[in-house]
Amino acid sequence: MYFGIELGGTKVVVAAGLSPETLSPLIRLPTGDPRSTMAATIAALREFEARYGPCQAIGVASFGPIRLDPRALDHGTILDTPKLAWRDFNVLAPLREAFPHIPLVLDTDVNGAALAEARWGAGQGLDVLAYVTVGTGVGAGFFAHGRPLHGFLHPEAGHMLVRRDGAQDQFAGICPNHGDCLEGLICGPSVERRLGIKGEAVADDHAVWEQIGRYLAQLFHNLTVIAAPQRIIVGGGVGLKSSVLDSAHRAYVDLLGGYYRDIPDLAAAQELIVPAALSDRAGVLGAIALAETASVQAPQSPPWPQWRDAQDVLERQDG
Question: In this structure, which long-range contacts are made by residues 249-258, counting pairs with CB atoms below 8 Å and at least 24 apart in sequence?
Fold first, then answer.
């Protein structure tokens, strides 16, 4: 049994299990201040312990930016997020204190979702895929040849700069760092700022969704020319709206301009860019898939840095 935590900007999802077929009922918690949120998360894990017995490992798929390198002194620390209360908070510290003998494995929420879709969802059998979520924020995770993509940090494609038609769109964007980056223009809170009402109250045929789809198509275009993923999988409350995705498909074909003979028309775009098969369970299932890596013997060339973190914990237990 593994425990998974999807720590999102709006809510936390906690579950236990081994796969989609064995997944426990989900516990959803609001993301409030760091200490109360983590206390509620730990209480949910204790509830799973009482119901299912102790787990082998805990996977955490967190919003970011967050330090993923286990060699770093600030491993597990949220960095310069717009959620100011979470800046410099270490999400692993309370979990280590509560579960000192259980390995912890950490990645981003979008990398976790990419991993889950690659294993159980719309990315099965593919070598390279991207997972894009559009909700409270905008993020992209990459899964390539068996591993999530990390560099000095991790991808933050939501802060990609896009072309804005000033004549059609006077909205300045809401990103505190970049203003009208992609996230600043199309995330859920930006819709509320544009219209004065929450996105879930906006009609599906409102012109704002068409506009957001066109911006999202720029991200899809850029992902295509940079990494040529075999599939782009889309999640999130905004990203999964059919009016947004339909608009993005059409604009994406126009932006490509016939450059790729493998993507000649709208039908090909619809096969390349698809809704998440695991829907809103992708993130927490990704966290469970991360946890599983902690209980598998690490290969000589670890698939991602968290293998080292988990292996260190296991070696200390053995020692």
Answer: 249/213, 249/217, 249/273, 250/213, 250/217, 251/213, 251/214, 251/216, 251/217, 251/218, 252/217, 252/220, 252/221, 254/217, 255/217, 255/218, 255/221, 256/221, 256/224
Q: Which residue has the higher pLDDT, 42 or 156?
A: 42
* pTM for this entry: 0.87
Q: Which domains does the chain have, with CATH numbers?
A: 2-112+280-318 (3.30.420.40), 126-276 (3.30.420.40)
Q: Which whole-number Å values give the CA distances from 143 to 94, 146, 260, in the listed order?
A: 29, 7, 22
pLDDT digits (tens, 9 = 90+) for 111-167: 999 999 999 999 999 999 999 999 989 999 999 998 888 888 888 899 999 998 777
The pLDDT, as a whole number, for residue 295 is: 62
SS3 10: coil
- Give the C-alpha separation, 207 to 196, whole Å: 15
Cα gap 28→273, rounded to integer Å: 28
The two structure tokens encoding residue 74? 């600030």
Q: Residues 228-239: pLDDT tens digits? A: 999 999 999 999
- When computed from its CA atoms, the radius of gyration of the chain, rounded to whole angstroms, is 19
Q: Contacts for 43-46 with beta carbons within 8 Å, 24 or more apart?
A: 44/14, 45/3, 45/5, 45/14, 45/98, 45/99
Distance CA 207, CA 205 (A): 6
The predicted structure's pLDDT at residue 296:
58
Closest by CA position to 117, among listed 276, 223, 238, 8: 276
